[in-house]
Every structure is written in C-alpha cells, then in structure tokens.
Specification:
With about 150 residues, this protein is mainly alpha-helical. The chain has one domain (about 5-149). Helices cover about 75% and strands about 0% of the residues. Helix 3 crosses helix 4 (about 90-110), helix 3 crosses helix 5 (about 120-149) and helix 4 (about 90-110) packs antiparallel against helix 5 (about 120-149).
C-alpha cells in the first residue's frame, strides 16, 4: 500500500463512521429500555430513582462528550495524514479540514428532521479535533527532540 493510501485511508474510514453516526435519529437515553438495565448491572447502581430531568442531562453530556471524542480521533488521523504529505503547515491544514467537515456535518443535519444543527456542536467538534491533532503534533515534536540527542 502506498504511503498516501496508508495515511489517508483511516481518515476516510473514520469520515464514513461519522456520516453513519450523523444519519442516526436523535434518541434520548430514556427511550432506550435496554440501556438502563445495562448501566445498572455494569455499575451496580439503581437508576429507578433517577428523575427524567437527570437522565436528560446525562444524555446531553454524553452526546456532547461523543462529539469531542469522535472528532478527537478525526483530528489525530487528519494530522497524521497531512503531516505525511509534507504539507508546509499540517496543523493549520488540519484545522481548516476539521472546520469544513464539522460545519458540513451540522449543515447536513439541518436537513434531517430527526436531528438538530448547532454552531456549538461545530465548536465542540473542532475543539475535539484540535486536541487530537495537538496530541499527535506534540508527540512528533518530542520524538524529534529526543532523537536529535
């Protein structure tokens, strides 16, 4: 496999995963009857006393954390790919691509009646992506410094 394909294939595979997630309907955690027993068994807690509002807030935080996590991976993969192409500013290029993808994802959700489209989600996505890219960039920089010694 060529270096270009090796670098970019994971990016496109992850983008396909993001597109799949984006196509799913918006489901609240309280609407998933199988999830509550699984959480109760996994953590050994009784959720029958949890209010609907608390479940709604937990669901909101979970979904926002997923935004950050999914785009963290994308940012990591994008920086890996852009750095391998020897682009002059791979971090800046990664930022631009992340912003376009995040905005495009939310734009696509705007037309799905079962989803919401929010600028705050774009900002969360870009923040998660930049964190992933920064982690890999820091690793590369540290590794170069150590190898020079």
């Amino acid at each position: 496999m060529s270096r270009l394909a090796y670098s970019w294939f994971p990016v496109f595979a992850w983008l396909a995963f993001i597109a799949y997630l984006s196509s799913l309907p918006h489901i609240f955690i309280t609407d998933l009857p199988y999830l509550v027993p699984a959480v109760e068994k996994l953590f050994g807690i009784d959720l029958t006393a949890v209010s609907h509002e608390a479940a709604r807030q937990a669901n909101f935080l979970f979904r926002k954390a997923l935004h950050v996590l999914v785009y963290f991976v994308l940012g990591f993969l994008l920086f890996r790919a852009t750095a391998s192409t020897r682009a002059p500013r791979p971090f800046i290029l990664t930022l631009l691509i992340l912003a376009l993808i995040a905005a495009g994802d939310e734009y696509n959700q705007y037309f799905n009646p079962e989803r919401t489209s929010k600028l705050s989600d774009v900002l969360l996505d870009v923040t998660g992506g930049l964190t992933g890219a920064a982690l890999l960039a820091t690793y590369h920089k540290t590794r170069r410094r150590v190898s020079r010694r």
